[in-house]
Design a protein that fits this description.
single chain; 364 residues; mainly beta; Tachylectin-2, Chain A; five-stranded antiparallel β-sheet; five-stranded mixed β-sheet; 23 strands; binds beta-L-arabinofuranose
């Protein structure tokens, strides 16, 4: 039996922040590193809890689309019910070591006709001057679906479509803009993210425990799901497919290979023509990566991008800014509670042989 302590707090509370205020526009100094700290980087935002940062450069500026963590009265469970987020803020930075601006609340659960609760990790994309905010949320039946909201600016406001994306399920959408003008959504997460309840895009609920429905340990692990986006960015243009992640011998990573198999938080970036799929291994807390020669894969496991952070979850994005690469990620430095996280940024290095240098978020 795997460890069922997903989303349980690991560290005691060090500091309690107010998470209810709704600033209109606030500006904070961002600190990329502090040599007196045991952490590689410092929290970018200190007046809200933020997590799962999806960073993009739109029109020369960095925009960050994170989850907005809050304390609520929902009891903690192994499916992450206490990750009870209710809205999204958008942030921007001129450079990864510059100041960060909070553009305020851009979408709330009450603005989404089909969503009941739990606005988890979002992402955004730009096409032809329109901006698309993609987000997972639970519907009336407590089933995660993925929605989209549209705006005229990277900072919104965003208007949600009346229904979730047809054929969408599970969590952690990330939308990759390929150099040929195609857009692909990657999504999925196991345990609380419900991916194990689906086979071939069909809901097949095998039970309520986080691991019910997972393949046996000697069977291929579940992978993230990919679908090309329609021209209007509002629907899938094709039937979603499972992405395969292979080991060094060309065999599927197995479900029991917890240090390397996919759990949640898929992200794609392209470097020197190679597609890099990075993802969280969940219960073993790594951000791992695998490479392939096209968006659909298969991808071959290559190693670890980011070692475990403080807190249970590990979730990131990788972005190129003026020819340099950065990873945005989170930990629980401010709160000590795994569901009240804070986002950070640090440089990421591609090595000459195509691998990525492993980053240690805790330096002692
Ligand atoms: O923020 C809620 C969930 O925690 C995300 O969707 C997962 O990726 C994990 O970071």
């Amino acid at each position: 039996m795997q460890n069922l302590m997903k989303y349980s707090p690991i560290f005691c509370t060090l500091l309690v922040l107010s998470s209810c205020s709704q600033p209109t526009e606030t500006v904070k100094e961002a600190k990329v590193a502090d040599i007196t700290s045991k952490y590689l980087a410092e929290p970018l935002i200190t007046d809200h809890y933020t997590a799962d940062p999806s960073a993009h450069v739109f029109d020369g500026k960095i925009y960050i689309y994170p989850s907005h963590d809050v304390e609520s009265d929902v009891a903690e469970d192994d499916l992450g019910a206490h990750f009870n987020m209710m809205d999204y803020h958008v942030y921007s930075m001129d450079s990864p070591s510059g100041t960060i601006t909070d553009h305020g609340k851009v979408l709330g659960v009450d603005d989404i006709p089909w969503a009941k609760r739990q606005l988890w990790a979002p992402d955004a994309a730009e096409k032809d001057g329109k901006y698309y905010l993609y987000f997972p949320a639970k519907d009336e039946k407590d089933i995660f679906k993925i929605g989209v909201a549209v705006g005229d600016s990277p900072t919104g406001p965003f208007t949600a479509q009346p229904e979730p994306i047809k054929g969408s399920y599970s969590i952690d959408p990330s939308v990759f803009a390929d150099s040929d003008g195609s857009y692909y959504m990657y999504f999925g997460g196991i345990w609380g993210g419900q991916l194990q309840k689906y086979r071939n895009n069909k809901f097949d609920d095998k039970g309520a425990a986080p691991t019910d429905g997972l393949p046996a340990d000697d069977q291929p692990a579940l992978g993230p799901i990919i679908a090309k986006m329609s021209g209007d960015m509002l629907q899938f243009a094709e039937t979603p497919k499972r992405v395969k992640i292979l080991d060094e011998n060309g065999k599927d990573l197995l479900n029991g290979d917890n240090d390397r198999r996919f759990f949640e938080a898929a992200w794609i970036h392209k470097y020197n023509g190679t597609y890099y799929l990075s993802y969280s291994t969940g219960d073993t807390h790594f951000i791992a990566y695998a490479t392939g020669d096209n968006p659909y894969g298969p991808f071959t496991y290559r190693g670890v991008v980011l070692n475990p952070v403080e807190g249970w979850t590990n979730h990131h994005s990788i972005v190129e800014v003026d020819g340099n690469w950065f990873i945005y990620y989170h930990d629980t430095e401010l709160s000590g509670k795994t569901h009240l996280r804070n986002i950070k940024v640090t440089p990421l290095k591609h090595l000459e042989n195509g691998s990525i240098e492993t980053i240690n978020p805790i330096t002692e």
